[in-house]
Amino acid sequence: MKHLKLALLISAITIFAVACESTNSTVSINNTNTANTASTPVAAAMPATDEFAAARSTFNAACVRCHKQNGEGGAVEFDEGGTLKVPSFKSGTGLTQTDIEFARQIAKGGDGMPAFEKKLTPEQINGLVRFIRKEFQAGLTNEGAASPSH
User: Is-above-0.70 flag for pTM?
Assistant: First the structure.
């Protein structure tokens, strides 16, 4: 019994030591311009988190077919026949709608846009509004031109 307790104690100390050591470890980054290797803390080597990662994924799954990757929209042809002119996020009503109106448009659809209220959660819809505002509309006025800086 004493040997079991001793073995557990040694294991716990070893795990603790390894955990403490790994938080201070470094990652080597090769620099192609020099022969030297630079050491950088692990946190600095990790990419910054994307606060819009989930919304970007939702946009790519639900919106990109019609609104395009750049948010410009344009003519979209459907397999069933017919073409729809999809508005750009960078001009027109997309810029003048409040966030609530924009979320309602996504949820309820209208003007040729399908309703997404049964396909997306309210959190996903609100995330899309924030993502579109940041990704496609930052700095734009309702005419689609860059807003003047003060």
Answer: no
E-strand stretches of the chain: 26-30, 37-41, 74-77, 83-86
Three-point CA angle 25, 27, 28, nearest 5°: 135
| Structure token digits, residue 70 | 């750049």
How far the first Cα of the chain sits from its last, in Å, is 75
| 143 within a domain of the structure (yes/no) | no
How many domains does the structure of the chain reveal? 1
Contact residues for 107 (Cβ-Cβ < 8 A; gap 6+): 115, 116, 117, 120, 122, 125
pLDDT recorded at residue 139: 87
Using the structure block, give the residue that is written with the tokens 């399908």.
114
Q: Which residues contact 2 (CB under 8 A, 6 or more apart)?
A: none
The answer to whether position 142 is within a domain reads: no
**Does some domain include residue 129?**
yes
Determine phi and psi for 140, rounding to 5 degrees: -100, 150
- pLDDT tens, position by position, 39-96: 445 555 556 678 999 999 999 999 999 999 999 999 999 888 889 999 999 998 888 8
